[in-house]
Amino acid sequence: MPLTLHVDAAAWRAHLAEVLDANPGLVPVIKGNGYGFGVARLAAEARRLRVPTVAVGVPAEVSLVRQNFDGDIVVLEPWHPALSAPRFDDPRVIRTLAHPEAVAALAGTNHRVLVELRTAMQRHGFLPPLPTGRVRSEGYALHLPLEGDGVAEAERTLRAAGVSEGPVWVSHLLGKRLAELRRRVPGVELRPRVGTALWLGDRSSFRARSTVIDVHELPRGTKVGYRQHRMIKPGYLLVLAGGTAHGIALEAPKPVPSLEARAKVLATGTLGAAGLTLSPFTIDGRQRWFAEPPHMQVSLVLLAQDATPPAIGDEVPVEVRMTTATFDRVELV
Ligand SMILES: *Cc1c(COP(=O)(O)O)cnc(C)c1O
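That is the input. Now the predicted structure with pyridoxal-5'-phosphate docked in place:
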């Protein structure tokens, strides 16, 4: 009874190859939920792509990537002596340093490191002057905000730190913007770290589908679900694979909508006004309403009586947010 990600492997891989070709030095980022595909799968794809290096978010992700990929692995989260002991002398792992005490702790060791420079992002990194200490540096790392001119911010940060040569690992710069930064800082060797635009850049090459687990035709007024809400109209109650455990219907926090926007929602959706929420499942051509908030592994969804109900075992399209979705199955066809 799975929630499945169907991937058109040829189309998806053609897109991956295209992004790689257009962006020399690209470092695939593999982290979190593996952008919906899973960390192990993406590591195996990176092996197929024959890239020398990938990046993971946190140290715990190294081992799964390591089993499926043969090259170097950068850990993006900066290492600090208060976070873990400095025992990561894995020759394939490159750690990021962003604090003087981290540089001091690793001075004179053979650990491979990147030195992160602070950008307008203000997440991590050194402000000039840069730390002195003999560490085995493989270059500098920059994390750029998505808002604003990333090229200018990268150039400004490098100049302020006096960096004009060697490898510089940057986030989110692709294509023309990457080429523009190359022109502006010709001495450095740019390594763009890319996750979303690589793995999720061709939305048409994959789609999520939910299996229909059960279907019931019910009269108006029937109480349903944990919450025992009554059916407002006669129709079908569908039990669909995909719940909170899969990240279904979880959204990123949004700015609070205005009173006016909320009033509009109340005025338009009758079911919305009845306290229901539009589900991400499409059945018989339309997105349908949740009967109640999703459960751990399934969702209860309402279907009007004049619609054609699916059968148990059918698959229906579901909109998912790929960076929060966990699928039961990823099928490459
Ligand atoms: C996640 C991350 C990236 C890749 O981000 P995408 O938006 O998925 O391309 C690059 N650099 C750092 C430091 C990150 O944390």
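The first helix runs from residue 9 to 22.
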